[in-house]
Specification:
alpha/beta, D-Maltodextrin-Binding Protein, domain 2, 11 strands, sequence-specific DNA binding, transcription regulation, WH-like_DNA-bd_sf, DNA-binding transcription factor activity
């Protein structure tokens, strides 16, 4: 191989790749944690080094040129290789101290993780934890997080996944709401009540109809994509909500609605990348999370 012919650096190639994938310099700069002028200089330097124009600039938008399209596939392969190198290097680290990113839903991050992280701090004070509170599934293969707490089984072949336990979700409402509006005794009593949904009603009403819950869009006067926001709305007497037992049982102002109603099963999975699981630091956090989350506190 003629090494002298390889004259550009990875930072420039990465700047080009992220700009192409994000669609603009500003978005790419945010993704990489750089300033837009710095990123623009890296892309321009790569164009100068290769002697080609990679983007057509029309106003604020960028469009790949034919040369850019031809180069993109090769740089993507470089990015994937760089990611594998990073994963392998992280996995080989045997030091305890360092950074670990945990991805979980906003409700789990807010109401379940804090006491567990307190235990972790006492056991390994040198570990720096970043909590990525998101209701989207973080891509562990692309290093969006090191460990993920999920409620669906991870399917990617490069992930190590562990079913920690089966949890359950139930209907809850504030005691004040139930005192004012009455306590449903059967599911037919749900008809006159207000509910708080986590998505557009038409998306989850189909599931409710399958289990014979007599709910319509008229029952859902409030919706939110945030579990924390939904829970706080319910705590402010605005309706009935579905929430994990692990969370609901910790709030004295909240009450189960129709406790005899069959709860909704919610599996709790832990996932990490196969390479990262060889890291002593990642393994320690993974095992502590597994032990803490597996404890059924009912």
């Amino acid at each position: 191989m003629n090494w002298q012919s390889v004259s550009f650096d990875w930072n420039q190639a990465r700047a080009f790749l992220v700009t192409a994938e994000e669609g603009s310099l500003s978005a790419a700069a945010r993704a990489l944690g750089l300033t837009q002028p710095t990123l623009g200089r890296q892309v321009s330097a790569l164009e100068a080094e290769l002697g080609v124009t990679l983007f057509e600039r029309v106003g604020r938008s960028l469009t790949l040129t034919q040369s850019g399209l031809e180069l993109l596939g090769h740089v993507k392969a470089m990015g994937e290789a760089a990611n594998r190198i990073s994963l392998t290097a992280s996995g080989q680290s045997q030091g305890i101290d360092g950074h670990v990113c945990i991805s979980a839903s906003d409700a789990v991050s807010s109401y379940i993780l804090p006491p567990i992280l307190k235990q972790l701090r006492e056991a390994a004070p040198g570990i720096e934890i970043e909590v990525l509170a998101t209701n989207s599934v973080s891509d562990l293969q692309q290093r969006e997080a090191d460990i993920a707490i999920r409620h669906v089984r991870p399917e990617q072949p490069d992930l190590i996944a562990k079913l920690v336990r089966e949890s359950f979700a139930r209907f809850y409402a504030s005691k004040a709401y139930l005192n004012k509006n009455g306590r449903p005794q059967t599911i037919d009593d749900f008809v006159g009540h207000e509910f708080i949904g986590f998505d557009r009603p038409d998306r989850f009403l189909k599931h409710f109809s399958e289990i014979y819950l007599p709910l319509t869009t008229q029952n859902f006067k409030l919706t939110t994509m945030s579990g924390v926001v939904g829970w706080e709305l319910a705590r402010n007497d605005l309706g009935i909500i579905i929430m994990l037992e692990d969370i609901g049982r910790n709030f004295e102002d909240m009450e189960q609605v129709i406790p005899s109603f069959e709860p909704f099963p919610v599996p709790i999975w832990l996932a990490t990348h196969r390479e990262l699981h060889t890291s002593r630091r990642i393994r320690l956090v993974f095992d502590l999370l597994s032990e803490a989350l597996s404890a059924d506190k009912s």
